[in-house]
């Protein structure tokens, strides 16, 4: 047993660090570190730098623009990117729809969509959830009826993250209402500019516009936009969900945020001393750091096992639950460390280009909002309760 | 022991409950919150007309002569409706300071106005470095001819944007964390040298930073003795904490009700999600937290106006600790059990959650009070 990185892995890490040091734009890193919201342009600028280096789509086959990285390299890359303050990749195109197209799509679909994902021409969003179909995804009702060379789509999706920026949406739609729930579902790619689509913002409790409702009113979608076979969409959906879950533990970003917490806790004072020297507060920071140490090891362990035999199975649910709990605990401490300054709700100071006087510090305005926003981590991507159901069924066979 | 309310107390609670129910539907609250004042002037005057702003004051200044239990009843209802008016800051906290420390002239002049709701006060004790420690005061008050000159900065003054007068702690002697040498002053926010940066708070209220730049105040603005204010500040903050616990209680109760209702109506997998045992137990845990918090809020209320001693200080610290913890737990669980809908601005549950989490960020968080309690804990 050897829990250290190999010489090759260390060399790879140095290569990633050197790349980030020279290529990550300082203005973007600064925004990420202060928890400011990224604009679409910021994401795209960074995306193009990664694409140029061949590192935007690590999970894809090399011939399509991917890498040969194994899980350990991916983990190293993720961790370093977070540590340097690179924006998190918006996953819907590159990490969600692309693997499904690669696995279940036609050659034509692969040739059409993948280059457009790399170039940034297409910005994807995920149309799974509906008002009545959250955890119980298979109960979805959005209907697609075949009409010649088209499907006619009617219904509603909700919680569509960054749908306001997207020009494409991948949807689960019901093509056979008679079949048993999971059987009558198809996986459809839909152009957001099609007549009959409307997008309405949902404002979350932190005042942010991140999610949307998407309505479909007799939207005509070419049958060529079906991925896989009709009524076999659930297979695509499940395949995608396992891919989605592997990234949800967010170790790299938790480590970066923990480092941020420590920096802030050295600046904020209580009784004339830095907060980090307050024994009670320090112990709480230490506690999450130990938790994080353990989950990093668990992640590497589970990934190493998967290296032998494909994607991690239900174990990734354990990582998701614990990883999100840790991240939420860190955001709780970040809110706490600034004391009464968690109260002011300074929308102007959260703007990307704010250069006015700061009420307290450049890091403080976003912390309370972030804490509330991060409640989503235990809800989306399969809620933590659903993840535990998976573990108890699949691993414990209860 | 007797936990029953008197007939009068029951009437008081009913009055407050009815008023909040009628005047504070959630959509209205949104409008009040977004207005320039940040709360409802009309509701504030109704609180005055119905005598609710008079509750904690003695009869000779037009008050109702109520104690901790009476204010608890009012605050619980105000919390249930997520009301935005600075009742706690003005009536309970500032009013209490005036009542305890004010000269006869100050009391005769101001208390009737505060009790009637025609004058709104605010309290400015926190500073950027103080992190809930009332004795950590760097704002300076220099004795000058005819009064004092104040300079410094006060942090996150809730209700300070609309207050007619603000009670400011400032150092007349000593070093920044000395327990003596702190004095209180009644500052007119429109006086030369005073400036404010007004902002909304994440829980929908309004507050300000208060900047004092060589602000000249008269000798009659001094509240209480020179350099001796700390114990009264702590005592009155204790009353404010008891009221805050009651505020949290109303909001927690509402958050639990909304969640329970949702568990019974939201269906997934063909059944109401309340059929899942794991969610049932989570709801039971929330209810248990609410029970614990209720008990501590009652305990704090009965000690709030009592003798200033270690026992009272322990109870206040314990109440804030238990209530702040319970409030956060209820907030987080309520959101989680609702799923995505619990995170939306347009649903009042999310606003209860924000208020409940923010309870900790005023008058000391759970860590602050845990340390305070540990220090005062009896070892045998
Ligand atoms: C910020 C945010 C972004 C999102 N982005 C997207 C997106 O881009 N695309 C998309 O399609 N969806 C997205 N979602 C939707 C997300 O996937 C759903 O919110 C999630 O599946 C939960 O569904 P729900 O909100 O309807 O909650 P419900 O399913 O109604 O759940 C309510 C509660 O019941 C619990 N519960 C449900 N079933 C069970 C059970 N069997 N056993 C125990 N407990 C149970 C849940 O865990 C939860 O606590 C997003 C959600 C959020 C909050
Ligand atoms: C020290 C001691 C003293 C006792 N004294 C007495 C006595 O004086 N007289 C007497 O009659 N009995 C007595 N008991 C027995 C006691 O009442 C039982 O142990 C108890 O009822 C649990 O039953 P069990 O041990 O068979 O566990 P089980 O009922 O088999 O339970 C095992 C586990 O499953 C959980 N569980 C069971 N059903 C559910 C459910 N529906 N939902 C969720 N979880 C569930 C339980 O909470 C427990 O964690 C005593 C037990 C102990 C340990």
From TrEMBL, chain A:
Residues 125-219 form the Acyl-CoA oxidase/dehydrogenase middle domain. Residues 6-121 form the Acyl-CoA dehydrogenase/oxidase N-terminal domain. Keywords: FAD, Flavoprotein, Oxidoreductase. SUPFAM superfamilies: Acyl-CoA dehydrogenase C-terminal domain-like (SSF47203), Acyl-CoA dehydrogenase NM domain-like (SSF56645). The keyword Flavoprotein applies. Its cofactor is FAD. Residues 231-395 form the Acyl-CoA dehydrogenase/oxidase C-terminal domain. Belongs to the acyl-CoA dehydrogenase family. This is Pimeloyl-CoA dehydrogenase large subunit.
From TrEMBL, chain B:
Belongs to the acyl-CoA dehydrogenase family. Residues 243-367 form the Acyl-CoA dehydrogenase/oxidase C-terminal domain. Residues 123-215 form the Acyl-CoA oxidase/dehydrogenase middle domain. It comes from the Bacteria. Its cofactor is FAD. The keyword Nuclease does not apply. This is Pimeloyl-CoA dehydrogenase small subunit. Keywords: FAD, Flavoprotein, Oxidoreductase. Residues 6-117 form the Acyl-CoA dehydrogenase/oxidase N-terminal domain. The lineage of its organism: Bacteria, Pseudomonadati, Pseudomonadota, Gammaproteobacteria, Pseudomonadales.
């Amino acid at each position: 047993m050897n829990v250290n990185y190999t010489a090759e892995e260390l060399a790879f890490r140095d290569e990633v660090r050197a790349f980030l040091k020279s290529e990550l734009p300082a203005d973007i890193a600064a925004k990420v570190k202060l928890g400011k919201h990224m604009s679409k342009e910021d994401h795209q600028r960074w995306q193009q730098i990664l694409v140029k280096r061949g590192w935007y789509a690590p999970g894809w086959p090399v011939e399509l623009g991917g890498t040969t990285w194994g899980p350990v390299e991916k983990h190293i890359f993720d961790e370093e990117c977070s540590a340097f303050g690179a924006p998190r990749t918006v996953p819907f195109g590159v990490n969600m729809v692309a693997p499904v197209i690669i696995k279940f799509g036609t050659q034509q679909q692969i040739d059409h969509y993948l280059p457009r994902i790399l170039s940034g021409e297409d910005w994807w969003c995920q149309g799974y959830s509906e008002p009545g179909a959250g955890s119980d995804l298979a109960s979805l009702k959005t209907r697609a009826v075949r009409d010649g060379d088209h499907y006619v789509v009617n219904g509603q999706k909700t919680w569509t993250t960054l749908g306001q920026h997207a020009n494409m949406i991948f949807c689960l739609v019901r093509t056979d209402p008679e079949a048993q729930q999971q059987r009558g579902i198809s996986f459809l790619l839909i152009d957001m500019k099609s007549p009959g689509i409307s997008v309405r913002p949902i404002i979350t409790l932190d005042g942010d516009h991140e999610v949307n409702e998407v309505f479909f009113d007799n939207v005509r979608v070419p049958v060529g936009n079906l991925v896989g076979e009709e009524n076999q969409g659930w297979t695509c959906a499940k395949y995608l969900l396992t891919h989605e879950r592997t990234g949800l533990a967010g170790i790299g970003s938790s480590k970066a945020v923990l480092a941020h917490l420590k920096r802030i806790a050295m600046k904020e004072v209580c009784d004339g001393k830095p907060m980090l020297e307050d024994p009670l507060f320090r112990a709480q920071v230490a506690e999450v750091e130990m938790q994080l140490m353990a989950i990093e090891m668990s992640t590497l362990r589970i990934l190493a096992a998967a290296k032998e035999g494909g994607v991690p199975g239900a174990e990734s649910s354990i990582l998701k639950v614990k990883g999100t709990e840790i991240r939420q605990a860190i955001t709780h401490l970040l809110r706490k460390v600034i004391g009464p300054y968690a109260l002011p709700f300074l929308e102007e100071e959260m703007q990307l280009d704010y250069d006015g006087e700061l009420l307290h510090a450049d890091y403080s305005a976003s912390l309370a909002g972030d804490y509330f926003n991060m409640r989503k981590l235990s809800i989306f991507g399969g809620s933590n309760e659903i993840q535990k159901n998976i573990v108890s069924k699949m691993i414990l066979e209860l | 022991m007797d936990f029953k309310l008197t007939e009068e107390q029951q009437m008081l609670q009913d009055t407050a409950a009815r008023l909040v129910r009628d005047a504070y539907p959630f959509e209205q609250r949104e409008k009040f919150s977004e207005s320039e004042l940040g709360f409802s002037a009309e509701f504030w005057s109704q609180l005055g007309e119905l005598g609710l702003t008079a509750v904690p004051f003695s009869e000779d200044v037009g008050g109702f002569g109520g104690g901790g239990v009476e204010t608890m009843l009012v605050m619980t209802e105000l919390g249930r409706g997520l009301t935005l008016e600075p009742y706690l800051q003005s009536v309970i906290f500032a009013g209490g300071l005036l009542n305890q420390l004010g000269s006869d002239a100050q009391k005769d002049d101001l208390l009737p106005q505060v009790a009637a709701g025609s004058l709104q006060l605010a309290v400015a004790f926190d500073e950027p470095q103080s992190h809930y420690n009332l004795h950590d005061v760097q704002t300076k008050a220099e004795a000058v001819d005819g009064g004092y000159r104040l300079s410094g900065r006060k942090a996150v003054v809730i209700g300070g944007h609309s207050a007619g007068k603000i009670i400011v702690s400032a150092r007349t002697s000593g070093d920044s964390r000395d327990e003596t040498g702190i004095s209180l002053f009644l500052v007119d926010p429109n006086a030369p040298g005073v400036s404010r940066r007004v902002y909304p708070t994440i829980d929908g209220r309004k507050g300000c930073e208060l900047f004092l730049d060589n602000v000249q105040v008269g000798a009659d603005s001094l509240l209480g003795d020179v350099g001796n204010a700390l114990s009264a500040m702590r005592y009155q903050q204790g009353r404010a904490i008891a009221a805050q616990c009651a505020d949290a209680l109303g909001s927690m109760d509402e958050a639990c009700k909304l969640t329970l209702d949702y568990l019974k109506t939201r269906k997934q997998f063909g059944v109401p999600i309340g059929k899942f045992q794991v969610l049932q137990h989570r709801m039971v845990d929330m209810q248990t937290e609410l029970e614990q918090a209720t008990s501590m809020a009652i305990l704090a209320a009965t000690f709030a106006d009592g003798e200033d001693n270690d026992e009272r200080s322990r109870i206040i610290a314990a109440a804030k600790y238990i209530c702040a913890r319970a409030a956060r737990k209820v907030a987080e669980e309520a959101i989680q059990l609702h799923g995505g809908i619990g995170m939306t601005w347009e649903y009042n549950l999310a606003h209860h959650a924000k208020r409940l989490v923010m309870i900790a960020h005023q008058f000391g968080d759970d860590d602050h009070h845990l340390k305070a309690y540990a220090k005062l804990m009896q070892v045998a």
